[in-house]
Amino acid sequence: RYKRFAERLAQLEEAEGAFDYFTLSYRSFGIQRRSDNGLVLREWAPGAEAVFLTGDFNSWEKQSHPFTQKEYGKWELYLSPKVDKSPAIKHLTKLKVLNTSRHLMASYNICIIQCSLYQYKHLNTLKYIMLNYNNFQHPRPPRPSSLRIYEAHVGISSPEEKIASYRNFTRDVLPRIKDLGYNCVQLMAIMEHAYYASFGYQVTNFFAASSRFGTPDDLKHLVDTAHSMGITVLLDMVHSHASSNTEDGLNYFDGTDSCFFHGGSRGNHSLWGSRLFNYSSWEVVRFLLSNLRWWMEEYHFDGFRFDAVTSMLYHHHGIGTSFSGNYSEYFGIHVDEDALVYLMLANHILHKLYPQCITVAEVRVYLSIEEGGLGFDYRLTMAVPDKWIQVLKEVRDEDWDLKNIVQTLTNRRRGEASITYAESHDQALVGDKSLAFWLMDKEMYTNMSALTAMTPVIDRGIQLHKLIRLLTHSLGGEGYLNFMGNEFGHPEWLDFPRKGNNESYHYARRQFNLVDIEHLRYRQLYAFDRDMNLTEDKYGWLAAGQAAVTTLNQADKVIVFERSNLLFIFNFHPCNSYIDYRVAVEHAGKYKIKLNSDELQYGGHGRLVQDTEFFTEPMPFNGRAQSFLVIWRLLKNIALK
């Protein structure tokens, strides 16, 4: 595999001039502006028999501007400047490319050209440089040592029943992300997609920022503003499949089903109804690699979360397959070696060109490329949210198997950087419930006021919501992720407008206004999430080694562990409190409370004395030379230092 990677990399270096800017000719449609304002338009359509350009500039005449066929499936059209020396196609012109072939009479592909984006660098090459829209005022922030990710979707980022905008997100949501202590935002559904309800995973244009949220400048302003706040910005990158649309997508671009994709049934995802890329194709690899550079260069993203990597890695695409941990499930003839090599190339090039770039995938592919891995920086621990949902759905509180929960949270190799989360957008989608809704369900509609006493359901839900998130944050990985709104226990589910719900936007929004109402308990959950992140920012447990669990008492339902010079104590017992509870520590000295879930401001009961000091004694306990007694009238959940 490494040999195949090295061979493909050498070919790229030779063709591209040691990682110079990748040619735009393999975007399927590229435009160059020459020094005389003449425009050279190129496309790659090997199956086409004729190619024409139509649009505003020629009153939509279909065949007045034919392309000339070149070698290797390329087509070219030169448009001389106007009499006044201005380009024949002006900024924001609407265009369509018409391809004809023996397989398809006519294939239209829609474009809106931003002519001022590019200038021809060398008349005899295919290299480009940027001209305008380079309004970034702030440098990329340093790569965080502790990654705290806020997963977000621009369109649903408003309490109003509408599609929110990049400007709205910049103005209203970025300050909340900063206040909450997250140092990274992961943006979903940015790449253009025709079907809003696809959550951005049915991409139609890989080089276009979704226009339903605003202009490219608005997105750049969002990224630049995030950088000014010290927030890293990741993009959800969908290179695993593409929309099957033909009018506005890559499907049948040149009249064949195999231009960018595998031909026949191999090129179709049987569950998603989308097209599957042919990673063995030289042109497809260049198309995808140039796409990565485009988002890094043009929009200043700081890295990518690669979506659906499992679908890329295996010929079965994960359909009807479960991974139990047996190595035979991960290796064998069912592995798509071409997809593996592409991911190796992507990670190698990104980290060579942008050493601070962050790449994330959902599978264990963290090893360096030299060691035979794919070179990703982090993996997502998808088993953790599944475990929490399973526990809440199927197990009574008194029957929780803490050993199994801890095993799920710590099941990773040392040195394997993982991003852990209690829930993401997957758990919020219609058909499932967020953790808060599993815990409190319909009572969230009527009993979330702090002006009245908590019902047993709300009390249990609020306390467990905090404990689950802190245990996941502190024990589960080297990074932490939260989906927007879940930090304050967003009620209900997430559902995009579609025929099945009468095109309603009621559930396609995030009700941040609930946090701004002082007497609602959503504000208390928000405060705990904020202080949890700020405590991590101060003590850096995510950047520390894995935790050392010293107490895992199934009968008492108590978990105690040390990480980054902090001692974490959790009591998950539904009814028992403890006094004189001995805990083991590595370091002798005085310990103080740094984060306490029972504080009133977090929706707790205020039963702990916050300024209590604890002194160790040289009494060996649970494998540690030091220990001390935690003496409370009620012990719930604390972090000590």
Description:
The protein has 641 residues and is an alpha/beta fold. It is 24% helix and 21% strand. It has twelve helices and 27 strands. It has helices spanning 2-16, 166-180, 216-228, 282-299, 309-313, 337-353, 383-394, 402-410, 425-428, 435-440, 456-475, 522-539, and strands at residues 29-33, 39-44, 50-55, 68-69, 74-79, 93-100, 107-113, 118-120, 128-130, 147-153, 184-188, 191-192, 205-209, 232-237, 303-306, 358-361, 378-380, 418-420, 479-483, 548-553, 558-563, 566-571, 581-585, 590-596, 613-615, 626-630, 637-640. The strands form seven sheets. It has an eight-stranded parallel β-barrel with strand order 10-11-14-15-16-17-18-19. It has a six-stranded antiparallel β-sheet with strand order 20-21-22-27-24-25. Helix 2 packs parallel to helix 3 and helix 11 packs parallel to helix 12 (522-539). The longest helix has 20 residues, at 456-475. It is elongated. Mean pLDDT is 87; it is low at 17-27 and 111-133. Belongs to the glycosyl hydrolase 13 family. GlgB subfamily. GO terms for molecular function: 1,4-alpha-glucan branching enzyme activity; cation binding; hydrolase activity, hydrolyzing O-glycosyl compounds. Its EC number is 2.4.1.18. It catalyses: Transfers a segment of a (1->4)-alpha-D-glucan chain to a primary hydroxy group in a similar glucan chain.
